[in-house]
Amino acid sequence: MAFPLAGIKVLDMSRVLAGPFAGRMLCDLGADVVKLEPPEGDVTRHWGRKVGDISGYFNQQNAGKRNICVDLSESHGVELVKALIGACDVLIENFRPDVMGRFGLDYDTLAAINPRLIMLSISGFGADNEDSRRAAYAPIIHAETGLVARQASITGAFPAELPLSVADTNAGMQGLIGLLAALFARESSGRGDYIQIAMVDATLGANDGLHAALENVAVGVTNEVHETAGGLLMMAGEFRYIWKLLSTVMCVNDGLGEDASLEEKIRARRAAAKTFFMETCCNREEVIAALDKMNIAWGDVRTADEVTELACVQARQSIKEVPDRAGGVRPVPDSPYRFRHLNSGVRKGAPHLGEHNDEVLADWLGWTEEKINSQAHVLKTLDRNLS
Question: Can you give the residue ranges of every domain in the chain?
């Protein structure tokens, strides 16, 4: 089966997570994604366990891509990048808003070279405002958009960073949607476009509780982890909803009279619920049967390394094995797309620095070996950097 984005050329100049995440999804959908890196490489090449000189973090976000390494401090390097942009459909970058302009790679300049170019710029705070020049990583955006404070208000703990980079992945996903919309629009207009995504905007839009904060409405804890005879389980629904089902469906009683205070009722009902899940239900099977009878959604509290035990993960092959560049394989999350009539998914591991210099220049620009060799002073490879 064909891949939906087969034939689309993407130059990915982004680094770390937000941009590379969008590029990885485009790659899994069949686009030819070429990651362009400076001689020092993406910093994430050094994050996590390395196999075949590829770190786990870099592999997850860049699996399937080709790689070209260009020194942009050389004017010839900038001209080479412009040539690549003239041949591609999509450009992704996530530098601070003024960096591309300093290289002479701003959208207006590039659109004059390639009017069909669709350029995606992801930044922390957007362009043309007093926050634009601030350094922005996901933890900073989490703090600025209320997610860190919201987590602290729920846990009662001192404010701390979230355990995953929500701001980055949401910005990358929103960027991906924008790119697909622009590619669709280009089919009729023949014209490219410039898409700017601010991580702040993407994070605010993903905060499902923001409405309450904006309207100054108090919101309680709606989902809790409960101790049960079947282990720790997350149950969907605030406790008063769960208690209503326990009392009406499972006939659990709090043992109190009608004149009991609210505090007494809450304390007694929580104790009765714990007794039911820990003692009345003697094992995991009985706990799950009771939850299913009450139609309460539940989930095991798993560690990340236990996720492969999920039947759906195994059935959907959510974790794929790709070549590890050392003669073996290593696991990587696959993209979530499952088409009826099209193909998708990760197909190979992440590239080495400059691994496809010659190949990309020949494929995209039709350059001869002699022409490629003439650019050796701006083209870098892993071996040259290590020597």
Answer: 9-209+325-386, 223-304
Looking at residue 386, what is its pLDDT?
A: 36
The parts of the chain modelled with pLDDT lower than 50 are 384-387
Say what the pLDDT of residue 221 is.
Answer: 65
Residues 140/198, Cβ–Cβ less than 8 Å: no
Instruction: Using the structure block, give the residue that is written with the tokens 């601010």.
Output: 198
Q: Does 254 qualify as catalytic in the annotation?
A: no
With CA atoms as reference, report the closest residue to 42 among 63, 13, 22.
13
Query: Given this model, what pLDDT does residue 153 score?
Result: 83
Residue 262 φ then ψ, to 5°: -60, -45
Structural contact between residues 235 and 285, judged by C-beta atoms closer than 8 angstroms: no
Q: Locate 184 and state its tokens.
A: 């669709």
Catalytic residue chosen out of the listed positions 168, 254, 324, 334 = 168
User: CA angle at residue 94 from 163 to 343, to 5 degrees?
Assistant: 80
Integer Cα distance of 302 and 292 in angstroms = 20
With vertex at residue 368, the alpha carbon angle to CA 366 and CA 374, rounded to the nearest 5 degrees, is 120
Instruction: Select from 3.40.190.10, 3.40.50.10540, 3.40.47.10, 1.10.10.10 the CATH code of 9-209+325-386.
Output: 3.40.50.10540
pTM of the predicted model, to two decimals?
0.90
pLDDT reported for residue 313: 94
How far does the chain reach from its first CA to its final CA, in angstroms? 43
Q: What is the pLDDT of residue 67?
A: 97
Give the tens place of pLDDT for each residue, 3-25: 999 999 999 999 999 999 999 99
